[in-house]
# Entry
Amino acid sequence: MKKEIRIRCVFVFPLLLLLVYLGAALSNTLPERLPELRAPEEAPAAAVQTAEREPGSSLDGVFREPDWIDFTVCRMLYEGLSDDGRQAYRSLYEAVLTHKETVYIPSLTSRELSDVHAALKYDNPHLPCISDEFSYGSFGGLFYVKMRYDYTRAECDALSAELVATAKRMCADCAGLDEYGRELRLHDALVRQSDYSDEGVNSNTAAGVLVDRKAVCAGYALGMKLLCDMTGLRSCVVRGTAESVRGTEAHAWLAVRIDGRWYHLDPTWDDPVNENDNSQLTHAYFNLSTEWIGADHRDFTLPEGVTCDSTEDAYYIRQGLFCGTGDWRAVIKENLSERLESMPFDVEFRFETGSLFDRAYESLMGGEIINELVREEGFPIERWRVASQAFNSMNSIRLIVSDYEE
# Structure
C-alpha cells in the first residue's frame, strides 16, 4: 500500500509542473484573458420550431434588440441554421451590441461558422459594424470566436444611429402606399442617391449605400433590406454569382415578398454606369422570377419556403411596359405618346423573347417606330433626340427622349 502511494506522488508532481508550464504558454497565445464561462440559455421554442411559422415572420422575444430599434427585423437566414448555429448566432448578435471581442459558441465546422457569420451580417443591416473578418479557435475543449471591429463601440453606436435616422427619413413618404408602391419608392430613392464604389470601410454595409451614398452590391442589398424592414416588407439577402462584362463575379441581391408572392430584386444592377460614368436608374431587375433573373444570376439558394415563380408584380408588367409578340408596337407607341408632352422623359420596355427584343431594338434605333409616332402625333421629327440603354440578357431597353430645343 505504501509503495502504491509513493509511485503516485512521483508521477503526479512532474505532471503538475507540466500543466503549470502549459498554462503559462497558452496564456501568451490567447489575445486576451478569456471571460468566465456561462452555459448559454436554451433557445425559446419560437426560435427552434420554425416549420409551423411563416418564413420571415417576427421572432419577437428571441433577440434582445437595441433601444433604438422600433421595427421588426426579418431574420430568414437565422431560421435556416441548425440549433447550434442559431445559438452561436444569438451569442454573436449580443456580442456585436456590446462590442465584445471574444465569444464562446457551440462547436461548429468552419463552413457552419461561415454560414452563421453570413446570416448574422445579412439578417441585420441595422448593425453596420459586423466585420467580414473574424477568427476562431478552441481552448480546453471550448470553441470561441474573435470578432473584429473597424470602429470603437461609441463610433459604432453613432454610425448605427445615423444609419437608422437616414433610413427613417427615406421611409417617411411611404405612408399610405401598398407593398408594391413602398418597394418601388424606396428602390428608386436608393438607386438615385447612390454610386457603385468599393471605396471606404462601409462600402459593403447598409451605412455605405444610405449614409456615405456609395457601396458595392452587398451594401446595396443590405441598405434595401433595412428599408424593407422599416416599412414592413419581408425580404432577405440572396448571395450567388452574376455574369457581367467582366465575367462571373460573386454578387448579392434580395428576395422580397410583395402581396404574398416572392420576387428577386437587384438594386445594384438597376444602377448601371454608362460610358460617361453616370449612374442611370432602371428597373431591369425589379421583381423578377427565378426564371427571368436566371439569365445572368446563378449559383444561389433561396431560404426554405421562398419560391420566386411569379411575374405578376414585375415592374414591366405592373406598369404596362411588357411587350408581347402580338402587341409590342402598340405598347411602345401608346407609352411614348402618353409622355410626349412632358419631354424630356425616359421609358423602359421588356420584350417577351430575345428575338423580339432584337427586332424591336432595330426598329426603335432605326427610327421606324419613332417616325410613325411623329407622323401620327404631329410632332416634328427634328425636335427629337433619342438615346437608349439596352439590357440584352433581360430583353429590356430604356429610351431617353429629349428635345433638341432644350
In short: DSSP finds 14 helices and 14 strands in the chain. Residues 189 and 209 are 11 Å apart (CA to CA). The chain has a mean pLDDT of 84.
